[in-house]
Design brief:
Blueprint (H helix, E strand, L loop, with lengths): L1 H16 L1 E3 L8 E3 L3 H34 L4 E5 L3 H5 L5 H7 L1 H14 L3 E5 L25 E3 L6 E3 H10 L6
Parallel strand pairs: 3-4
Antiparallel strand pairs: 1-2, 5-6
Helix pairs in contact: 1-2, 2-5
C-alpha cells in the first residue's frame, strides 16, 4: 500500500511538472504531456494495483473455501447496505477495499456447488437487535454497544454472537 501511494505521488508530480498552460491568461487550462517516464510509472502502478487485487481475490477464495469445507447445512448472509455504508467517511475506504459483493457471490456459488443451502437475510431483519433467548427486539441499540443486554430477560452476550444465533434461526419468508 505504501509503494502504491508513493508511485501515485510520483506520477502526479511528473504530470504537474510537465503541464503547459494553454488558452488566454487567467484561464486554468493546461495541456499535459505524457513522457516516457510517466508511461513507465503508470505501467508500474498498474502492476501494483493488479497485484493487490489478486491478493484480495486470493484471500476471498481462501476464506470462502474454509467456510464451505466446514460442511454447514446452510449459510445465512446479511444483505448489507453497502452504498449506505460508503457514505460514512470513516468506513468508506476500508469497505471499498473489502469487495463485499465479490465475497458473497463467490461464497454463493461455492455453497451451491457443494450442495449447501445459501440464504440472504433481508437487509431490514433486526439480527443484532433481537434477543436470541426470548425474541424481544431492543429498539435503541447503538453501533458502539458491543454487548447486547436484553431488557426483558437480562441475557448478556456479545452483539455479534447474538446476531449470528439469530441469523442461524432465520427463516426465508416466501
Amino acid at each position: 500500500m505504501r509503494i502504491l501511494k508513493r508511485k501515485q505521488k510520483q506520477v502526479s508530480r511528473k504530470y504537474e511538472d510537465g503541464k503547459i498552460p494553454i488558452g488566454k491568461e487567467g484561464e486554468n487550462r493546461y495541456k499535459f504531456t505524457k513522457t516516457n517516464n510517466i508511461k513507465k510509472l503508470e505501467r508500474e502502478l498498474k502492476l501494483i494495483q493488479r497485484r493487490l487485487s489478486n491478493i484480495r481475490l486470493n484471500h476471498i477464495h481462501q476464506t470462502t473455501t474454509t467456510i464451505v469445507k466446514t460442511k454447514p447445512s446452510r449459510i445465512v448472509v446479511e444483505d448489507l447496505n453497502v452504498k449506505g455504508m460508503l457514505k460514512n467517511k470513516h468506513l468508506s475506504k476500508a469497505i471499498q477495499e473489502q469487495c463485499f459483493h465479490k465475497f458473497i457471490s463467490i461464497l454463493e456459488y461455492k455453497s451451491k456447488f457443494n450442495g449447501i443451502e445459501f440464504v440472504k437475510a433481508d437487509r431490514f431483519y433486526p439480527s443484532s437487535k433481537t434477543c436470541s433467548c426470548c425474541g424481544v427486539i431492543k429498539k435503541d441499540l447503538k453501533l458502539k454497544d458491543r454487548v447486547f443486554v436484553c431488557p426483558s430477560c437480562n441475557a448478556r452476550m456479545d452483539r455479534d454472537k447474538n446476531a449470528s444465533i439469530n441469523l442461524s434461526r432465520y427463516k426465508k419468508s416466501a
